[in-house]
Design goal:
about 50 residues; IS701 family transposase; mainly alpha
Length: about 50
């Protein structure tokens, strides 16, 4: 979905993709996070560990 449209409609944006392995692992935990930025921080934390 277009980011501008998401902002105008106040819809949550999609998380930015990282490494496929990290994305696949972290996808199991996505429902735990209300905001996408918290989920992205979770992914970046795991990316930093690798």
């Amino acid at each position: 979905m277009d980011v501008e449209l998401q902002i105008l409609k106040h819809l949550p944006r999609d998380a930015q993709p990282t490494v496929a392995l990290v994305d696949a692992y972290c996808a199991e935990y996505k429902d735990l996070f209300k905001e996408v930025r918290n989920y992205e921080c979770f992914k970046y934390l795991h990316l930093g560990i690798i």
